[in-house]
Amino acid sequence: MRNVRFHLIGTFLLIIGFTTSWGEAAPSSAPDSSGQTVYFPLMMKPTEGLRVSQVRVLQGSSLSGGYAVYLADRETLVRVFVDTADGKSVSEVTGRLCGYDALGQTLGCMPADNGTIMAPSTEEALQSTLNFHLPIAWTKPGFNYHVDMDPADLDPNTASGSARFPSSGKQAIDFVEAPKLDVVVVPVEYRPSENSQTFIPVTDDLSYLTYLPIKLFPVPAVDYQTHALYTYVPSSSSKNLDRVDGWVNLLEDITALHNMENSSGSKHFYGLVNLYEAHGCNGGCITGIGWLGGIGAHKTAVGWSGFGAGNAAASETMVHEMGHNFNRKHVACSGKETNIDEDYPYPNGVIGQFGVDVSGGKLYQPDDYSDYMSYCDPTWTSDYTYWNIYHYRRNTATTVQLNSEAVEASYISGIIAPDGAVTLQPVYSQRTPVPAIGSGSFTLQLLDVDGRESSVYSFNPYEIADSGGYRGFGLFVPSVEDLGGLRVFHDDQILAERYAQDIVERLDVKESSLAIDRSAAALQLEWLLESEQVLAYRLRFSQDGGKTWQVLALDWRDSEFRLPLELNRGLLEIQATDGLNTSTKVITID
């Protein structure tokens, strides 16, 4: 409240007003020309009534109309924008939000998280709106709400009819169900050469890797499982991770591991490798790679652990590469992107709408941040990418239907180079359900020992994003006893073929031939084989008596292996392959 004075000067009346804090007039007095004091009401135009101009529901991005989707059971912020009709500022504006379930029953009312605000609200300032973090129990299909401004009737600027939003009844938030995301993180023990130093990412606390997916992906939750350490020792320097071929080879390995452990593809597998300490990143480097629109076990990607064994840049790579698994192409921004999404709606790759970190309470300006599917920095999600990933997960059958009974099956995989050349990977076998016969323009033909066709399967390879045109395939098919050969066709052209020289002799690893050196860092295993036809080994470990297995190494070319100390009790499987046929020995480790 302020004191006021006024004076008559000639025929002009100068009034310096006296008002309450709400713009109400108060009586004033002044001497008239005869020296008498007169009283009259001081008439001041009050500030126009407050009103709710808009309400935005935020879960990662300020969604524009065409890309609006709200997920049930996900952290949700409701921003209530308050306006004044005459544009004047009003302080200490309060409000509450009241919720109702699908049956119309009240869930209660809650005050704004930020107490009071100064109206009018602006989108650029998060604290200029009345903000409500909805309880997760409210974020259900059928949820409705209304907002009361100044619920205690303290503010006369809150005019009747605009004090409530909507003015009558309730407003719906169309929450929809979406499946959670299950991710298996596969830490990679990387040795660029057989005798080089070993590089391992941080695994005891993966928050540096996992903090972004729940913020940027349209999922209600992300569940993470950490796999046993997978050992990657390239067969040659051309398969090191300072080259595209190396990343393609590692992706093929982790995809094979995925197929062998989760062939339906109900989970995503993500390989994590300490690239930076192995090769550095001077002048640029490859930091990750993934399948584009992966189905089944091709829901797999690999990426670095950031600038060191564990750094926040790892999470930025993770969402980019997993975005490819969700069938997202690149967003044009830096000019270095390839395989561009021509339908991206915002110029120069910017996110186009305000982004929001709901849990962190931070806004991201639409023109200052680029979509994370671009090569620009800094990044957040656009509403376009958020919406498209939601619809891809909703409308695309990304899992593989498996036959109910397990059979002895062969895993056959290969890499298709940009020039069309096919490199076949070693064949491995295990007892597992196999998918139904598919269709495609590529054909896999299995031959018996006499060179006659035993079975044939159709398939289509998957594209590897960020690879310059590489593709790949990996599938389980019922095994052919004493497989004599296999061929891969495209139309009628043979792209690759392999024939058996000799069937791999049965492994005869006796307890006396298995040497175990119990060092401080690992169990060093060494075994003896008679056969000279072994091309490579697969090593798997089971801690539940053989019910489930985790792959520790593929295409292993040595007869000794370092077993991590945490795997000091269980079953170790050593499978030898000559490229076509396999022989297996299971050893108890105690």
Task: Provide an overview of this structure.
With about 600 residues, the protein is mostly beta strands. About 10% of the residues lie in helices and about 35% in strands. It folds into 5 domains: about 5-40, no CATH class; about 50-175, Immunoglobulin-like (Sandwich), CATH 2.60.40; about 185-325; about 405-500, no CATH class; about 510-590, Immunoglobulin-like, CATH 2.60.40.10. The strands form 12 sheets. Strands 17, 18, 19, 20, 21, 22, 27, 28, 29, 32 and 33 form an 11-stranded mixed sheet that branches. Strands 9, 10, 13, 14 and 15 form a 5-stranded antiparallel sheet that branches.
What would the average pLDDT be, to the nearest integer? 87
Q: Low-confidence stretches at least 5 residues in length (pLDDT < 50)?
A: 1-35, 37-47, 155-161
Output the number of helix runs.
6
Can you summarize the main beta sheet?
11 strands, mixed
Span from first to last CA? 83 Å
Number of strands: 42
Shape: elongated
Structural domains: how many: 5
Strand content: 35-45%
Indicate the radius of gyration in whole angstroms. 33 Å
What is the share of helical residues? Answer: under 10%
Structural class label: mainly beta
Q: Tags for this entry?
A:
590 residues, mainly beta, Immunoglobulin-like, 11-stranded mixed sheet, 5-stranded antiparallel sheet, 6 helices, 10% helix, disordered N terminus
Topology, element by element:
Elements: E1 6-9, E2 12-15, E3 27-31, E4 37-41, E5 50-58, E6 70-71, E7 77-84, E8 90-93, E9 95-100, E10 106-111, E11 117-119, E12 130-133, E13 144-149, E14 164-165, E15 171-172, E16 175-176, E17 181-190, H1 207-210, H2 213-216, E18 222-226, E19 230-232, H3 244-261, E20 268-273, H4 275-279, E21 288-291, E22 300-304, H5 313-325, E23 355-357, E24 362-364, E25 370-371, E26 379-380, H6 383-395, E27 407-416, E28 422-424, E29 428-432, E30 442-447, E31 453-459, E32 462-465, E33 471-478, E34 485-490, E35 493-499, E36 515-518, E37 522-526, E38 536-542, E39 550-556, E40 560-564, E41 570-577, E42 582-589
